[in-house]
Amino acid sequence: MKRLLYAAAGLAAVVCSPMAAKAQDAEWGCQILLCAASQNPSWHGVPYCVPPMKKLIRAMSKPGFDWPICHQAKAGEPGREEFEDCPVGSRPASSSDEDVRVFRRDENDQCVRIMDRCEDRDEFNRLYGDGEANDKNRTTLEILRSGRNDDDFGYRDNKYNGCKVKVTSPRPRRSNPWYFDIPDDRGVKERFWFNLRT
Is the pTM of this model over 0.90? Predict the structure, then answer.
C-alpha cells in the first residue's frame, strides 16, 4: 500500500486537485495507473481497484482496444516483459530455433549457456549431474564436439574435445509481466510491475 500512496502522491503533483489522486475519483486511465502501482497488496486486494481493472481486462479482449491513458501522470501505455532475465552467464534464446517448430509467436523463452565440464567437474555434476532433476526442470545438455560450425557462441576453435556443453533450460516467466514507469514530481521514474489475471 505504501508504493500505491507514493504513486498517488506523484500523480497528485501533476493534476489540479488532490482528490484526483484517489483511484475511486480519478478518470479510468488514472484509476488503472494507480491500481497497477499497488504492490502489497496488489490491485486484486484493493476493493476499489477491482472494478476498473476487470473493466480493462474485458475491454482488452474486444477489437480496436486502445489502452486508456492517464495523461496527467505522463506514464503512457504500459510495457510488457513476459520473462525474467536469464541467470548470469546465460543468454536468452528461442525454442522456435529448434527443428520441431510449434505454431506460436517467436519469443526468447529459453536460457542457454556454455559450460566447460572438464574445468570443474564437481560443480558441473552438482548443477547438472542428476538426469531426473534435469528432466523435471526441462534442462537439456548437448556436448559440443570439435569441428562444429553451427553454434552461435563463437566457439569455433576446434578445441572442444567433449568438454564444452551447451546447457538449455526454460526461461522463468514473470508472475507480473506488465509494468508502468511512473515519474514523480521531479521526473524520476519508478517501475511498478503488475498482472492482469482475474
Answer: no
Kindly state the DSSP code that residue 39 receives in the 8-state scheme: B
Please say whether the beta carbons of 53 and 29 come within 8 A.
no
User: Which alpha helices (H) appear in the chain, and where do they start and end?
Assistant: 2-12, 28-36, 50-60, 121-128, 131-136
Tell me the sheet residues that pair with 116: 164
Per-residue pLDDT at 145:
76
Residue of 133, 132, 159, 129 whose CA lies nearest to 147: 159
**Side chain identity, residue 108:** N
Distant-in-sequence contacts of 137-143, Cβ < 8 A, 24+ apart? 137/169, 137/170, 138/169, 138/170, 139/167, 139/168, 139/169, 140/167, 140/168, 140/169, 141/165, 141/166, 141/167, 142/166, 142/168
Residues in the chain, pLDDT under 70: 1-26, 97-106, 146-161
Q: pLDDT by residue (tens digit) across 38-89?
A: 999 999 999 999 999 999 999 999 999 999 999 889 999 999 999 999 999 9
Please state at what angle helix 50-60 crosses helix 28-36, rounded to 10 degrees: 110
Q: Which grid cell sits at 91?
A: 543468454
CA distance 126 to 122: 6
Q: Which three cell numbers stand for residue 156?
A: 569455433
CA 125, 127, 133, 134 dihedral sign is negative
